[in-house]
């Protein structure tokens, strides 16, 4: 398809430019955008101009492109994450008040944990997770909780893929990960110790749907020097149960295709 | 321009379909989308199909279109609201802990207050504001704080426009609004009493930039039956000053064109 393709290719290529940004690449130059989309620079230039005119892209002080705040506004209208956040947030707030640590609520999207909501304060350890961030399942607390309670087929598929090493403590051996996940299932909560980020530890529990499937995970992240990680478990389990109940109360219509495997995740 | 326009029109029309959604219209049928964009239904159908294939749009159980969670993820990469949230959130959290009420952080976008961050809990009064919501300036606490400390030219322009009546308590008389704004400036905080929503009251303070211009507003919303709204003022002012300091510390690059008037606001 040429430089001036038909409508389909133009729209999807314009969207691909937006999709080229991620947590590790929040700003990109025109050349980087073109390269990441496998697009001639001239095409990228034209489409970027249109995205900028619509304020889907902005340029920062260094003349690098970034996602425009208009996309932020429109994205917040997406009903599924909005509803999940609205349901989980008050329970997360209660957990935050008692722990003063980072509180996470995440769902599984493909092979990642997608962070739907996060609460933090001045006393919490600084960590890389943000709302909208995706992190791998095996080195994160919420990810291990999501993975451990997934189907055995999914667990096998996950363990058969290369397991990224995030720190020297990340579990990258499939056999060890399988044993760890069995332990998570047996005790009902997941622990990490500097497996995602040096200096932080986490504890997380699954949030089940009323059909018994894991829908989300709720976790606490704290400084690795702090003891007493498991003291948060009863509180996490209690709030997770309340979220299950609240999700059931709100489930007037299902969340089609949001949680679990999604077509575009490949 | 025909049904199959050139790249520019195709991209901008596809984006217009995304921009057709707002807080009052989080889901739309194909006909509604076409009508809101002034587009032939056949064109809308083709472009909607492309947006859906890319997961920028999703269909819900009622076969209505809604913004896809993929746009939510990408939107959260937008650096300006992300940074403002990261700066304000810990201070908002402290305010929440002491008040247990809804806490808002908003900036002015054109003639609206744009809600950048919100904290809430079980005990807070249910209100319509959400992150990403725009509400008019004159009936909201954060809006009045933003408006009162804007330039006198902007205030005059705002007061010369029709003032929407949200409840029977909304101030819709320009003269009365001007006097109210003078009072806000004199005492350093804004109050509302059921002016946006029956049953809720609010108090808000401006958050100044280091150049003395108002950059944002910080507010508390509570049940209208609760007394003691002004007891939150010292705490709000103190946290607002800390946010000013934190914004200054973080301001390695400016927020070009985000706060205040924006080209597309018209």
UniProtKB/TrEMBL annotation, chains A, B:
Keywords: DNA-binding, Transcription, Transcription regulation. One of its GO terms (biological process) is negative regulation of DNA-templated transcription. The lineage of its organism: Bacteria, Bacillati, Actinomycetota, Actinomycetes, Pseudonocardiales. Residues 70-249 form the IclR-ED domain. Pfam families: HTH_IclR, IclR_C. Transmembrane segments: none annotated. The keyword Transcription applies. Residues 8-69 form the HTH iclR-type domain. InterPro entries: GAF-like_dom_sf (IPR029016), HTH_MetabolicPath_Reg (IPR050707), Tscrpt_reg_IclR_C (IPR014757), Tscrpt_reg_IclR_N (IPR005471), WH-like_DNA-bd_sf (IPR036388), WH_DNA-bd_sf (IPR036390). GO terms for molecular function: DNA binding; DNA-binding transcription factor activity. This is IclR family transcriptional regulator.
